[in-house]
Write a structure and sequence with these properties.
The structure holds two protein chains of two kinds.
Chain A: H1 2-59, E1 62-72, E2 74-83, E3 89-96, E4 99-102, E5 106-108, E6 113-119, E7 127-134, E8 139-145
Antiparallel strand pairs in A: 1-2, 2-6, 3-4, 3-5, 3-7, 7-8
Chain B: H1 2-57, E1 61-69, E2 72-79, E3 85-94, E4 101-111, E5 115-120, E6 134-140, E7 145-150, E8 160-165, E9 168-170, E10 173-182, E11 192-194, E12 196-202, E13 210-215, E14 221-223, E15 228-238, E16 244-251, E17 260-267, H2 271-276, H3 278-281, E18 284-289, E19 300-307, E20 314-324, E21 341-345, E22 352-353, E23 359-363, E24 369-371, E25 376-383, E26 393-405, E27 408-420, E28 427-432, E29 451-455, E30 460-469, E31 483-488, E32 493-499, E33 507-510, E34 516-521, E35 533-542, E36 550-561, E37 569-570, E38 573-580
Parallel strand pairs in B: 9-17, 29-38
Antiparallel strand pairs in B: 1-2, 2-5, 3-4, 3-6, 6-7, 8-10, 10-15, 11-14, 12-16, 13-15, 16-17, 18-19, 18-38, 19-25, 20-23, 20-24, 20-26, 21-25, 22-23, 26-27, 28-30, 30-35, 31-34, 31-36, 32-35, 33-34, 36-37, 36-38
The chains are: A alpha+beta, B mainly beta.
Amino acid sequence: MALRSRHSRRGLSTIVTSVMLVAAVGIMGSFLVAWSNSSFTAQQVTIANQTDSKINLIRESFVVEDVWFYTQGVEKMNVTLRNTGDVAIRITHIYINNTQVWNAGQTINATKVAEISFNKDWNPGSPQAIWVKTQRGSEVKQIWKS
Amino acid sequence: MMRTGEKQRKGLSTVVAGVFMIIVMSSAIGVTAWTMQQQDRVTDEILAKTGEKLSRLNEVLKISEVGIANNKLNITLSNDGGSASHAKAIYIVNETAVPKQQYNYDIDYLVDGRATVKNVGQTLAFTAKNTTSYSIRVITESGSTASAEYLPIASTHIPMTLYVIPPTITTGENVTILYAVTNNVTTSNSPLTISPKITSSISCAGVGCTLTKITAAPSKVVIHKGATVLVKEVYRADGPPSTTITFNASYTGAKAGNFVTEKGTIIVVTLSQSVITSIATKPDMYLILPGPFGLSTQHGLWGAVVVNPTNSPMKISRVLMTAFTGSHTGATQVVQSGCATTAIAPSTASEWSCPHDNQIQWKRLGAPLTLSPGDTYTFLVRAQPKGLPPGEEEPGATVTATVYTDIGVFTKTGYTVGMHSISEPLGNVYMTDSTDQGTSGALNNAKMFGHLNNVPPNTNKTFYVVFADLDTDANTYINAGGRLIINVPPGFSNVTVTFSNLYSTPTITQRADGITQIIGVTTGNTGDAAAGEAKVIAFAAITPSPAQDTTYLMFAFVDGVTNSSPQFSAGAIAEMAIEIDVP
């Protein structure tokens, strides 16, 4: 009996230990699964956003349709932009000869045209480098003669 | 048992951990696959974008023509590419205005690949002037651009040259003006359309001083880029020597000072120019000669057909027909000095004579015969042959004809007449005006002709050609089987023989040179009748339709032998003129 009792106490502790071990493994596993799911989901959202941004950037397309130099009290320029892509674009910056002349921002829907006017001195017959940038990062550079 | 149970519990936690690991790994693999799909989306978009760019490269829109119609721009768009092009906007800049003014309009023209769209601009609310320069730019939906310029001819100096041909002008003759204009406009590919404007003036005035335009320049001429066009006008100039004719050429709406002037001078005809323009300044002459001109007391028919091809009246004062033989005896007399003649045309007997042996002459020095421009006159006379020394024959005495006119003396040679020292018939060929072959018809002097004037063009006309023995000696004749050959000149069509009762059915042959040849073969002897004998072939033909009055030459001759012993050649000829008068 004494021997059996000693054996019984040892069996109980073993069981308890095993249960605790399994429980610990379960808890850690659950935590790991929860954490990995959360991490993967966050990563998916990030990748999805980046992919959509890249795709939209690729789908962006526009041309400088016309640049008209004129004087209306002061010397001015009128830049006409045509959205030739199939997503709306937002023009954020216009540079003339590497100098920013406009940054008011203007959205142009797909296939539409927008005129952007601003004051800018120009010399007749001179080349004018027109640089237009969008919010997504597309840009067009052209040289027009004033 | 205890050892065994311990081992089983350790395995349970491992299994649980493995399950969790599988779950985590599955998620990781799923995320990786999804990420690759996202990369595929980006790749697909890049491919689509590249396709669009390639498609844009296949769109080659250009403005192929710019004009102004109905006070509107009239633009032609051409797409030389394979992809359709959708024109969406047009920008028009008035380059003449100060400062320049720009107008832009939305348009909507779909130009298919390798297709053209015309009349672009006709519906725009933009009024264009043909005196203003415009630059035009068309934008497509994909952002391609086509541009062109419209330059009014009033603002462009166009190179031009004027030629006066000949620069020295013979009075009464035509002078041709050639106006050369070159489209050297480099700013446009469009053809240049001009309305030529050629003016002329003559420095003299009064009677006999005229400058008449015969052929006018076309009202509009289209000149393609880089090409030169010659515009022609023809004038007729009449005036005294040293008269100056001034021609000025330009075009309607030309830039100020863009014209060209050239002058021509009327001069007296000099020898060298007479040679150069011989066709226009000397009369044409053709002969009617007997063959044989056989010994007879009868008279054979001689004729000189004179044509005035100039545009001025021509006065004729003398006509000579002279025969030359190669006989060494000096006794060969085709006609004898003072020979007997029968005047036919002109009919005044005293005007005809044989001033010496071998020469027949018509002369009217005091009142020359006037031949109107383009008209023809046949000097016809019947003359008595003289003869040859016994035993001789002269089958080819050379005949020379000379005509004296108020524009010079002209001679033609190269004809022959044949004689025999024994009696021979008087073979002749000429025209008459009916199928009457008797003494009131073809044998009547008044019915013998060498030409026809005032024949209408493009008309079915009947002509009568005679092969005759004009002597009344029944013992001299041309044997049956003699051929009358008529060469109907080119331009006469639908030739049909309508009368030939003394010939076997004549043959009609269309020759490669345009001549229609009629050959009639006599079925009986010609001239074995006591009253002489004439054999008529009548034929009908549609006369030509020349642009101006034109004289045609019909050549007829006889090919036969006489009944004499030894036999002699029958080779009468007639060159007969037919003048077609254009109404």
